[in-house]
Amino acid sequence: MTRPQASEGTMPTTFEQDFGATRVIHVSGALRAKAAVHNADPSGADDLSIAAAESAMKDLSGDFQNWMGDEINRLVAAFDDYRSKGPGERDITNLFRAAHDIRGQAAAFGYPLAGEVAGSLAKLLDKIEPDYLPTPLIAHHVDAVRAIYRSQVRDYANPVAVQIIHTLKKTIDRMVEARANAIAEEQKMARGR
Asked: Which among 163, 169, 162 has a CA at the least distance from the CA of 141?
């Protein structure tokens, strides 16, 4: 079921779709729709406003590059902090937050592959308890994000990067499944006592 969300007389800017247990909320992000004005143009958009907004976005593109570098530095620093502490002392909060932020924003700034690797790392950190996290696997993720950024890999045409992402994701999926099975087995054994 689709439910538009708008006041009377305006174009819907969001709509919802229900798929059983899942609800998807679509938010309009089109620059043309955001620049809409009432004029004689049948599209309802002021081309000068759109051109000015697109120019401003191009001017900010250098900041996007700096942002990505800053986020990767934050990820590396969080990993170094995590690695410097012994088991039982490790806090994954900053590491998870850095990976999660890159996952969520890297594609918008032209690094979708880095976002996928960071998403894989965030999944690992979210699903596995800190004492069971394999430090070398975390290091592979951090190194992959850095390499993608340093090599300016911005699309899926790089077969090596795509294979690395595939391998990391597959490894995480197997690890999460194995840990879930181990927890279930531990719980079964605890109930049997």
From this structure: 169
pLDDT on residue 88: 83
Task: Give the whole-angstrom CA distance, residue 83 versus residue 124.
Answer: 16
What mean pLDDT do residues 52-76 have?
75
Instruction: Copy the structure tokens of residue 10.
Output: 């305006």
Q: How many CB atoms lie within 10 A of CB 51?
A: 11
Q: What percent of the chain has pLDDT over 90?
A: 54
Mean pLDDT score across all residues of the chain: 80
